[in-house]
Design brief:
Blueprint: H1 2-11, H2 23-27, E1 33-37, H3 43-51, E2 56-61, H4 64-77, E3 82-86, H5 89-96, E4 102-108, H6 126-135, E5 136-146, H7 149-158, E6 164-171, H8 178-185, E7 191-198, E8 215-217, E9 230-231, E10 235-238, E11 242-243, E12 249-258, E13 261-271, E14 276-280, H9 290-308
Length: 310
């Protein structure tokens, strides 16, 4: 598993050439694919992976400690059909999967953000439902289970126009996850399941993932470059420019924050026979988001200016 996980990470290069991912390659053959969003400590993910070894499961989680626990659980169970990503699931769905490639998406106990003024933070906004619809095959399902009746009602209100049919059910505890156990211990008996079945394809949201450009620059001097941070749709902060003594190669770290996510992108400048190239460094773990494109453009602009300075 370590090998395949390393391969998944290696795929997440900035160029966009390998996106969406070739999951057949990751899993070593064709398989139905299912995603769990926010798998916590992995009880449910491991259960469904054990029950359906023919399916490839991809889990997204943002809490590192929970990923470590889930990984140990996967290894103890000897499961080979699960991959874990320490990622925001929305970005994952957007960049890693092609249209119609998923059979199912599961999410147990999403953060309910119960206060009205925090409702904008709830995960399944219509935009995200439309994205999930696009990534599911026809008839594929998004299943959401919550301990909050009001959250289930809110979720169903978001559905019109997103291409799903809704089924709802109230049931007892059945998933054995950490959060289900927590609510049970507090005396909760009823849980609310909402199943959204894709019945209509929306016009495709599977935009081409634009490759991040390589900028060719005739003349520049890394020692004279001045980089300015920027705070627009994406907030971009640059580290110090590091260059070698011959000034034939330089690197700079760009920290790019957008849509509540942060990426660390190393940008490399290398002098060749015909001039310089400015590009995302190989192995830099970043996605070709608008902020990443902008960071590269800013570096290339600063590089051009540095070439003109006396
Ligand atoms: C309330 S917990 C539920 C965990 C688990 N499903 C369970 O039932 O025990 C919600 C989990 O979702 C994760 N999460 C929230 N938003 C996420 C996102 N956009 N992508 C991936 N994970 C997310 C959080 O880190 C957290 O572990």
């Amino acid at each position: 598993m370590a090998d395949s996980n390393t391969r998944v990470r290696a795929y997440l290069g900035i160029t966009g050439e390998d996106l969406p991912l070739d999951w057949m390659d990751v899993f070593g053959g064709p398989r139905p694919l299912e995603v769990e969003i926010g798998f916590g400590t992995g009880e449910y993910l491991c259960q469904i992976a054990r029950e359906r070894p023919q399916v490839g499961f991809i889990g997204f989680e943002q809490a590192p400690g929970r990923i470590v626990k889930t990984r140990a659980r996967i290894e103890a169970a000897g499961l080979r059909n699960v991959r874990l990503l320490f990622w925001d699931a929305v970005w994952g769905l957007q960049y890693l999967f092609s249209s119609g490639s998923l059979d199912a998406v599961h999410c147990l106990f999403p953060c309910p953000w119960p206060k009205k003024r925090h409702a904008k933070n709830r995960l399944f906004q219509p935009r995200v439902l439309s994205l999930v619809n696009d990534r599911l095959r026809m008839g594929g399902t998004l299943t959401v289970v919550t301990d909050e009746k009001a959250y289930a009602a809110w979720l169903m209100e978001q559905v019109p126009g997103t291409g799903f049919l809704v089924e709802a059910e109230t049931h007892g505890a059945r998933y054995g996850t950490m959060f289900e156990a927590k609510w049970r211990a507090e005396g909760q008996e009823d849980f609310y399941k909402v199943v959204l079945r894709k019945e209509q394809a929306l016009s495709s949201l599977c935009q081409e993932v634009a490759r991040v450009r390589i900028y060719d620059i005739q003349k520049m001097d890394p020692a004279k470059m001045v980089l300015r941070d920027e705070k627009r749709k994406a907030a971009i902060t640059f580290g110090e420019i590091i260059h070698d003594q011959t000034k034939a190669m330089a690197m700079v770290l760009a920290i790019v924050t957008e849509e509540g996510q942060t990426q660390h992108l190393w940008i490399k400048m290398v002098r060749g026979e015909k001039g310089w190239s400015v590009r995302a460094a190989e192995g830099s773990l970043a996605l070709p988001t608008p902020g990443a494109h902008r960071a590269l453009a800013l570096v290339s602009e600063a590089a051009v200016l540095s070439g003109g300075r006396a």
